[in-house]
């Protein structure tokens, strides 16, 4: 075993490696995740390398090279790892070094040495160089060599992609302890906070990054996470939002300087616009207006302007609502209703945009908490969620042998039967004689599971009946009183009064239907005001072991409901 | 796995009387199937899970394979959809002619057209971007030609914008389904042929879902609903996609306004034509729909039956009425006859009584003579005769026919003047008793 592979010698960090930005983090001795700033003071380090006369620039410094040295600047390459040329989307690289087909992989042609010669640098090599820079920054900050990391990846990163990344990391002197899914890292970042309470919930992680947006619906049950559905979109992106501002300022510029050329048609003009517009967009996340200022935008003309947030909100509206549709679509894909969603964690840099958070909040019922800087004071910086999650995970597993970690992440350990319906008891509410279902174990809870419920009894105590049942979540929709449909006249006022808000909103509520009664049990002679404790244990074979007793009372009832399913089986 | 406690504040139900179970527990059902999912190997609670699951166990290769066999897939395959072949002519299109392009063909989703979901359009777009990105073509030594790529972008822009998509879908000829002719319908299956037509037309409906044409088993109500729906069809179809381009420059405002007005009129005209077209289409379908005929026949049969029943009932009623009338007439006649008969009888009786009375009176008066005018012995003087006859007449006048008959009978039984006189005197006494005569009024008999 080499020195780096020895857990005792390990210094592990968390790495979030995005197409646009990367971050590095670690967990302090007190168990707090910290994001590390690089030598430039950046915590969001652009995933960019640029070569100037043999010198390698990285991060923010490389990014400025888009203007003068675009050809030798490599950006937006992460997703190319482990892919064939035919399956990559070259769009984001249009204004910098273009990806090329290189043997069975992908490369960029750049002048990366002092020699006047272009070299084809493979995406793996670019990644290695980038990770090396990240590793060095972390080592510099921590004051010790870094040799291992937990790295976040999108949920649809293929095994080939992970393999390529793993190799590139190794080349950079980083042993990847584990790849973890970005949305799960975000959930972990929130759950690892000391004030966080362990609760069963459904969380949607909606990540609006630079070149893609990703949505994941995650069931969180007793601190165990299961992804129920995901969606990915490469058209609703931060770059598109930048483009909206680019078009806006270009048009404003053209209005003012009629004889000047369109800055978008000039490579440098466009590069300057891009950089400045991204900065403006970020400024609008905090301020209600922002300044745009570029020296020599095109034809030597300096251009300054201001924009207020309302304008930007309007310009970006189509993309904001497309993002919100995407999020709702993911919920639908998980066969859930917005009412089922406890939290939406907004992640990715663009989650800083207030209008995105409010659009999402409007798409969900009030019962759903939207965690974003503008909607929640306790929100974690959305740009740091991945790296924080990775850092926490790194601290949790860094003392394990790599083999041990690999074994534990194998499907033989991770594949688990999940309850298809909630299991609970029937209680009495109002004058209902049938009883209302109250969940004790939620649907999508991995097995085995144990849950306990403390249940009230009738005012006078006495003998009570405890019916265990499966509950089906049902969305009750109450339509508003139907308004008389207005007659459409045959005249020509056709497009004048298209229906906008003349439809009243229907009332939607989450209710339960009893699917299947599992068992009946009696607890006799409950004291006045007494309570009953029900403990449910459900095994992987779907067998249920239930224990009932009066709280503080003696004895109790015990029952077994046969599972009839072999362990590990499923329908 | 971690345990948590749920607090439930609604009370449990009271145990129903008579509920019993061995050891107070009764199993009834069992849990529905479970779904195999991957749990994320992340976080402190997962570590505990892994420890428990791996505890003192070694997994066989078979276990390892089995574990993944049924696991629920979360990520979609990108290759999930068949790609349509690209027409070489289409690949040579110029982006500036985007209005004339078939956006669905450009994205390779002509098998979906208006049915394509946002998701399908996005995936199709991505597939095309991966294939046709000009930078990739250039990198492979191709030309810098980005015309078709721009066509792809335009197609996506139109199809992902709900307003623009409707404008295009409104005039997407390839999505149209021509209604079959009368003879085609007769030869083929009405429901199949017209079902497709209505499905295609239904894409323009503001009201969704659109009722289905159904089949020969559809109920009358369903069929009526269907045609009612189509006769009051609320269509979002618009025709601005066919607008003539409005000049962009600000120079010629009049020209601009002119084109705009022309466009408005053209749109309205097309819309009117479309409404008429649809109405005719529905008329045609209705005319060919066997169910309508059947329902009409059934209706007619039903009506006929009702009419016949009604007629029969009327006939019966008429007959009954006639009978009743006849009976009434008969009864009337009988009654009249009876009346007539009884009238005749009473007349005879009266006559007879009259005659009898006349006879009796004669007897009574005759008896006065027999009683020698109540004069005793010797010839009675004229005054006595007058008085006696007068008095007897007074008696007769006071008596009805029966009394007269009774008196006559008594008189016939009386022999000799004294006896006769006595009979008269008794009669007088009776009449006085009845208050019909006064004492001493009849001098001859006092
Ligand atoms: N404060 C901010 N306000 C608004 N947008 C921001 C802010 N900070 C970063 N962004 C935007 O977020 C995007 C980057 O997101 P993120 O840091 O999540 O990158 P990433 O994961 O590398 O993205 P991807 O892999 O999708 O390219 C960029 O479009 C950037 O402009
Ligand atoms: Mg990201």
TrEMBL record, chain A:
Gene Ontology MF terms? ATP binding; ATP-dependent protein folding chaperone
Pfam families linked to this entry: HSP70
Q: Which domain of life is it from?
A: Eukaryota
What InterPro entries does UniProt report for this protein, alphabetically?
A: ATPase_NBD, Hsp_70_fam
Locations of Acidic residues compositional bias?
489-506
Compositional bias of kind Basic and acidic residues:
478-488
Positions of the UniProt region annotated as Disordered: 478-510
**Cited Gene3D superfamilies:** 3.30.30.30, 3.30.420.40, Actin, Chain A, domain 4
Keywords, comma-separated and alphabetical: ATP-binding, Nucleotide-binding
User: What family, per the record?
Assistant: Belongs to the heat shock protein 70 family.
This chain's protein is named Chaperone protein dnaK
Species name for this entry? Karstenula rhodostoma CBS 690.94
From TrEMBL, chain B:
Q: Where is the composition biased (Acidic residues)?
A: 76-87
User: Where do the record's region annotations for Disordered lie?
Assistant: 50-87, 247-274, 300-360
Q: Which UniProt keywords apply?
A: Chaperone, Cytoplasm
Subcellular localization, as worded in the UniProt entry: Cytoplasm
GO process terms (BP): 'de novo' cotranslational protein folding; regulation of translational fidelity
Chief place where the protein resides: cytoplasm
Entry's Gene3D superfamilies? DnaJ domain (1.10.287.110), Ribosome-associated complex head domain (1.10.8.840)
Q: Does the keyword Cytoplasm apply?
A: yes
Q: Does the keyword NAD apply?
A: no
Which residue intervals define the domain J in the entry? 102-172
Going by the entry's taxonomy, the superkingdom of the source organism is recorded as Eukaryota
Per UniProt, the ranges with Basic residues bias are 255-270
Q: Which GO terms describe its cellular component?
A: cytosol
Basic and acidic residues bias locations? 308-353
Concerning SUPFAM superfamilies, the annotation shows: Chaperone J-domain (SSF46565)
One Pfam family hit? RAC_head
Q: Tell me which InterPro entries the record gives.
A: DnaJ_domain, DnaJ_domain_CS, J_dom_sf, RAC_head, RAC_head_sf, ZUO1-like_ZHD, Zuotin/DnaJC2, Zuotin_N
A molecular function (GO) term: Hsp70 protein binding
- Name of the protein this chain belongs to: DnaJ-domain-containing protein
């Amino acid at each position: 075993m080499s020195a780096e592979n020895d857990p005792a010698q390990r210094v592990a960090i968390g790495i979030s490696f995005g197409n646009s930005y990367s971050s590095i983090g670690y967990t302090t001795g007190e168990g707090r995740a910290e994001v590390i700033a690089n030598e430039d003071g950046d915590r969001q380090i652009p995933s960019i390398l640029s070569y100037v006369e043999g010198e390698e620039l990285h991060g923010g410094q490389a990014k400025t090279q888009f203007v003068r040295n675009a050809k030798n600047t490599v950006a937006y390459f992460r997703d190319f790892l482990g892919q064939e040329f035919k399956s990559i989307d070259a769009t984001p690289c249009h204004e910098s070094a273009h990806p090329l087909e290189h043997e069975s992989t992908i490369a960029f042609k750049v002048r990366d040495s002092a020699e006047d010669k272009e070299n084809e640098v493979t995406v793996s090599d670019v990644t290695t160089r980038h990770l090396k820079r990240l590793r060095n920054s972390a080592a510099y900050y921590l004051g010790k060599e870094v040799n291992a990391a937990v790295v976040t990846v999108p949920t649809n990163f293929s095994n080939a992609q992970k393999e390529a990344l793993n190799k590139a990391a190794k080349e950079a002197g980083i042993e990847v302890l584990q790849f973890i899914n970005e949305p799960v890292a975000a959930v972990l970042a929130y759950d690892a906070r000391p004030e966080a309470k362990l609760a069963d919930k459904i969380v949607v992680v909606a990540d609006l990054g630079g070149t893609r947006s990703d949505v994941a619906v995650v069931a969180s049950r007793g601190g165990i996470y299961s992804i129920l559905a995901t969606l990915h979109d490469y058209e609703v992106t931060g770059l598109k939002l930048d483009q909206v501002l680019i078009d806006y300022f270009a048009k404003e510029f053209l209005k003012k300087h009629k004889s000047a050329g369109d800055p978008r048609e000039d490579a440098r003009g466009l590069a300057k616009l891009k950089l400045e517009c991204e900065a403006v967009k970020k400024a609008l996340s905090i301020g209600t207006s922002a300044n745009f200022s570029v020296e020599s935008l095109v034809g030597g003309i300096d251009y300054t302007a201001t924009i207020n947030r309302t304008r930007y909100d309007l310009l970006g509206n189509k993309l904001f609502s497309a993002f919100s549709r995407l999020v709702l679509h993911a919920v639908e894909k998980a066969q859930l209703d917005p009412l089922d969603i406890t939290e939406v964690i907004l992640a990715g840099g663009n989650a800083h945009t207030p209008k995105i958070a409010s659009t999402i909040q409007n798409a969900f019922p009030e019962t759903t908490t939207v965690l974003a800087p503008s909607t929640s004071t306790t929100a974690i910086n959305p740009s740091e969620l991945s790296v924080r999650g990775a850092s926490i995970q790194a601290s949790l597993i860094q003392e394990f042998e790599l083999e041990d970690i690999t074994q534990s992440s194998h499907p033989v350990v991770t594949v688990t039967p999940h309850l298809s319906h909630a299991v609970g008891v029937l209680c009495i509410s109002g004058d209902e004689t049938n009883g209302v279902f109250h969940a004790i174990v939620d649907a999508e809870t991995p097995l085995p599971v144990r849950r306990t419920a403390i249940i009230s009894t009738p005012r006078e105590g006495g003998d009570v009946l405890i019916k265990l049942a499966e509950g089906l979540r049902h969305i009750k929709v109450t339509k508003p009183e139907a308004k008389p449909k207005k007659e459409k006249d045959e005249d020509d006022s056709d497009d004048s009064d298209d229906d906008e808000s003349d439809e009243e909103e229907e009332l939607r509520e989450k209710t339960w239907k009893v699917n299947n009664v599992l068992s009946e049990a009696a607890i006799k002679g409950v004291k006045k005001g007494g309570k009953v404790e029900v403990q449910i244990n459900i095994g992987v074979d779907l067998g249920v072991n239930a224990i009932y007793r009066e709280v503080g009372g003696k004895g109790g009832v015990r029952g077994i409901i046969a599972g009839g399913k072999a362990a590990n089986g499923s329908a | 796995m971690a345990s948590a406690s749920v607090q439930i504040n609604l009370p449990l139900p009271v145990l129903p009387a008579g509920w019993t179970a061995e050891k107070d527990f009764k199993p009834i059902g069992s849990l529905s199937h479970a779904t195999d999912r991957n749990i994320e190997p992340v976080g402190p609670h997962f570590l505990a899970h892994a420890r428990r699951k791996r505890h003192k166990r070694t997994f066989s290769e078979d276990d390892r394979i089995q574990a993944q066999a049924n696991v629920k897939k979360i990520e979609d395959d990108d290759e999930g959809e068949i790609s349509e072949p690209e027409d070489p002519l289409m690949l040579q299109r110029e982006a500036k002619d985007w209005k004339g392009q078939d956006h669905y063909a450009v994205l390779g989703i002509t098998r979906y057209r208006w049915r394509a979901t946002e998701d399908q359009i996005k995936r199709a777009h991505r597939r095309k971007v991966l294939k046709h990105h000009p930078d990739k073509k250039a990198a492979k030594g191709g030309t810098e030609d980005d015309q078709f790529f721009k066509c792809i972008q335009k197609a996506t822009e139109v199809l992902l914008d709900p307003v623009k998509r409707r404008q295009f879908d409104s005039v997407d000829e390839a999505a149209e389904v021509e209604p079959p002719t009368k003879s085609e319908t007769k030869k083929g299956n009405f429901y199949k042929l017209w079902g497709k037509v209505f499905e295609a037309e239904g894409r323009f409906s503001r009201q969704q879902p659109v009722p289905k044409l159904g089949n020969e088993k559809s109920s009358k109500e369903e069929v009526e609903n269907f045609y009612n729906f189509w006769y009051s069809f609320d269509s979002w179809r618009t025709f601005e996609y066919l607008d003539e381009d409005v000049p962009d420059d600000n120079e010629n405002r009049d020209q601009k306004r002119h084109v705009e007005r022309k466009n408005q009129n053209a749109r309205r005209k097309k819309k009117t034509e479309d409404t008429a077209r649809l109405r005719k289409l529905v008329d045609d379908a209705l005319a060919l729909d066997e169910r309508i005929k059947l329902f009409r026949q059934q209706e007619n049969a039903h009506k006929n039956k009702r009419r016949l029943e009604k007629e029969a009932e009327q006939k019966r009623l008429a007959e009954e009425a006639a009978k009743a009338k006849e009976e009434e007439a008969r009864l009337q006649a009988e009654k009249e006859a009876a009346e007539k008969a009884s009238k005749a009888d009473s007349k005879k009786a009266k006559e007879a009584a009259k005659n009898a009375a006349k006879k009796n009176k004669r007897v009574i008066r005759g008896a006065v003579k027999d009683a020698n005018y109540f004069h005793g012995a010797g010839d009675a003087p004229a005054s006595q005769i007058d008085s006696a006859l007068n008095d007897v007449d007074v008696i007769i006048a006071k008596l009805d026919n029966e009394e007269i008959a009774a008196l006559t009978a008594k008189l016939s039984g009386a022999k000799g003047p004294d006896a006769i006189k006595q009979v008269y005197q008794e009669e007088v006494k009776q009449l006085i008793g009845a208050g019909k005569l006064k004492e001493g009024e009849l001098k001859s008999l006092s």
